[in-house]
Amino acid sequence: MCTEWTEMARWPDIENVRRDFPLLKNAGIAYLDNSATSQKPLCVLEKEKEYYENYNANPFRGLYGISVKATDAYEEARAAAAEFIHAAPEEIIFTRNASESLNLAAYSLGELLIREGDEIITSVAEHHSNLLPWQQLAARKGASVRYMEPEADGSFDPEKLREMMNDKVRIVSLTAMSNLFGTLNDVKTLAKIAHESGSVYIADGAQSVPHTVTDVKELDVDMIAFSGHKMLGPMGIGVLYGKKELLEKMPPFLTGGEMITTVTLEKTVYAPVPHKFEAGTVNAGGAIAFAEALRYLTKTGLKRIEEREKMLTTLAVEGIKKIPNVLLIGSERPEDHHGIVTFKIEGVHPHDVSSIFSDENIAVRAGHHCAQPLHRFLGIPSTTRASFMFYNTEEEVERFLHVLASIRGRMGYADENLL
Ligand SMILES: Cc1ncc(COP(=O)(O)O)c(C=O)c1O
Question: Which of 109, 150, 195, 345 is a good FRET partner for 285, with 20 to 30 A between their CA atoms?
């Protein structure tokens, strides 16, 4: 069971909400690595267990009761994912994660659209998952990848994209929210500019979909990729949304069981979308539990979640700005960070920073965050990142700031501890 939201206008006691997440108590840490993966509420864990204990059977394949039940529940999960982003169920492809979604998009769209000499635009601010698939596609087809650069606040300037567009650009694929900056990009305007030049527009929504309202119709993106595990769902389930008319034209990515209508030795007719893109046994338990996570997020309310995460982020950003020799990456404005606060401490390696936090039972992430080109662009080899979810508390942020302010001192520098 998870929190019942009887009073819809206000947050219930945060300690009640935190009780929904067993790990927060069991691990005994301040978990500030939510951009890497979120924690899972009990109702999500129970939903997956319930599936395996009561109706685990291969969906789509059996005509007996529990297989039909598994199929129905899997398709209901698809409908829930569709509703969450204002899409139609047949526009939702279940994958393993955002990385697989972007690989699917790059492979299949590449087969459909990319010829020698064509161009693909992505950016230096991408997670490797929205970079390597395009590099591979370009190498396979003799096409080229061009890279947009972010502004100092981490956003993309739509006018820069307009200047980069030409009639060779077939695909533009940009992050909706960078995992380093936390800036929410103007996806609607960027997509419009790509469309005006006849290109398709893909958004990497791995960081944006868990934390902000996503309406694919309003944004008019052709595709968006995201992962269940970053939004209270289990690992191993992700989504690729695609406009139906585009998905229908795209060839399959993986082939094999269950994605066909007929197979003869001479010719195969593929199943209608989205099943054409879901070869082999699907992750039914994962999808069903993911739908429960979406219910939890919807019940809590994305707007309310955004508000609370903004409060926590503001506390962190304003606190960091007061600590000498700590450089905040990206915008100075707390409202641009959406729960993601990346920083560099002068003279201290991020691995040392992370170890010190770990000694204090605080989990933060250190390294290049799968964004090496962005670090190179910023002229910094690596950084440390704290990332918040609505279940974090002001007290955890205060603890984080207190430890942060002490790190240079612990490493032998003679700064004054300002906190
Ligand atoms: C912006 C962004 N895109 C893509 C991914 C890849 O997600 P996954 O590892 O779930 O495939 C991540 C993961 O951190 C991310 O932050």
Answer: 109
